[in-house]
Structures are given as C-alpha cells and as structure tokens.
C-alpha cells in the first residue's frame, strides 16, 4: 500500500513545532526606500522654498491661451499619429514585399527619417520655400510655398512622416509575428495578398502592436512641444508667449508641464483598457 504524503514547507513545520517565524530584514530594500523618500523630500523642499509664485501657477492654469494650446497639442498629436499610421502601414508592407524596389525604398525611408533629428525635420519643412519657392499644380494653379507651409502643415509633415518610420517598424514586427500558415491558408481559399492582409493578418497583428503604438502616441503628445520652434501654437509655445510678456518663466513652464502630465495621465488608462479588451479576444 502506498502512503501519499504532502510536502511540508518550512513555514508549516515551524508552525507545527510552535515556533514563531521571523522574517529577515532586507536592508537593501530599506536603504533604497530611505534614499528615494529623502530625494523626494529634498525636491519638494526645493520647490517649496524656491522663487516660485504658486499663485501665478493657479492663475494661468486655465487661461484661454493655455487651453487653446492644450487643444492644439491634442489636435496635432492625433493628426500626426494618423499620418504616421498610414505611412507606417505602407512601409511595413513594402519591407515585407517580395519585390526588391519596395523593400529598398521602404528601408531607405526608414533609415533617413530615423537618422535625422525631429527638430531638424521640422525646420526644413518650415523653411521649404528656400528650396522650392513655388509648388506647381499642373493645369490648376501655382502656390507660393511660403504661404502653403504654415506652422500647422510643417509640424504635421515633420512629426507625422518621422513617426511613420517608427510605426513602420512596429507594424512590420507585428506582421512577422503571425504564423506563415495564415498566409498560406488565405492563398488556398483564393484570397489575394492584400485581401488576406486586411481580413486575416492585420486583425491578429493588431493585438501585438497596440501596446507599442499606444506608447508612441503618448510620446507624440510630448513630441509636439518641438513644434513651438516653428511657431505652432501648442501649449508650450503659448506658455512661452505669456512668460515673454510677464517674465514668470518657471511658473508658466510648470503650467505647461501640468497639462502634458494630465493628458498622459488620462490616456494611459485608456491604453491599458484597450490592451485588455484585445487580449480577451485571444482566448
């Protein structure tokens, strides 16, 4: 006859013997906690005692110019991300194409836009009239480039086309994560490559790429601050315009930082909810 015995842990043995379990003190954890709390208190004390007019922070937090800047930041983020998604999808399909020309062209685009700083791209688009004085639409009209390249359009092209290079790599990785058998099954039922991509591959890849795409969108919120260099009226630019007049520099920078933080705080839980919703579809 076989007698089955359950494993007894050290804690169970100590409890049965009437001994009191003593936890060892993790001095490394205690030390790191003390350092973190000390650093936070030091920073809080510096802000409390620094030459900051907190009344001005509250005063300018909801002024119309700042709220217009918040709206402009959100608008640019959504538009640039949409452009980046469209460009990124084309690049991802091109990188995975069996044809040489689309592969090389997509790779060259990614190499160029990932290699040039975003602020430089924005300045080039904003000063495009120095290279192309006029934009000619054959049979329609000729437009002066200086009139066409407004701060909004320059920021949209600079941020969106740059974002497309990164999104293209994210989508490429997502498409490559799908088993090759999915493509072969689609071909067997008579689907073309594009139909299979739209109906079968992309819906599955979406579950993989949503987390990094969410991070890219949150990063785009902060990246729009670079558009202040070309006079796009996002929240940082409007804050700068105000402190140029009243010299309350740090107060207006805190106001701008507050709004960036609030936007990210609202968007982060929405991203996590979307990720959980898509994850349920995998079970």
Automatic annotation (TrEMBL):
Choose any GO biological process term that the UniProt entry carries and state it.
amino acid transport
UniProt keywords, alphabetically: Amino-acid transport, Cell membrane, Membrane, Transmembrane, Transmembrane helix, Transport
Q: Where in the cell is it found?
A: Cell inner membrane; Cell membrane
Q: Which InterPro entries match?
A: AA_ABC_transptr_permease_3TM, ArtM/GltK/GlnP/TcyL/YhdX-like, MetI-like, MetI-like_sf
A GO cellular component annotation here is: ATP-binding cassette (ABC) transporter complex
Annotated ranges, domain ABC transmembrane type-1: 70-271
Matches recorded under SUPFAM superfamilies: MetI-like
What sections of the protein cross the membrane? 24-44, 65-91, 111-136, 148-167, 249-270
GO MF annotation: an example: transmembrane transporter activity
Q: Does the keyword Mitochondrion apply?
A: no
**Tagged with keyword Oxidoreductase:** no
Q: State the Gene3D superfamilies in the record.
A: MetI-like
Q: What is its main location?
A: membrane
Tell me which Pfam families the record gives. Answer: BPD_transp_1
What membrane topology does this protein have? Multi-pass membrane protein
Q: Tell me, what does this protein do in biology?
A: Part of the ABC transporter complex GltIJKL involved in glutamate and aspartate uptake. Probably responsible for the translocation of the substrate across the membrane.
Family under the similarity heading: Belongs to the binding-protein-dependent transport system permease family. HisMQ subfamily.
Q: Which NCBIfam families match?
A: HEQRo_perm_3TM
Q: What is the recorded name of this protein? A: Glutamate/aspartate import permease protein GltK
Q: Which organism is it from?
A: Nguyenibacter vanlangensis
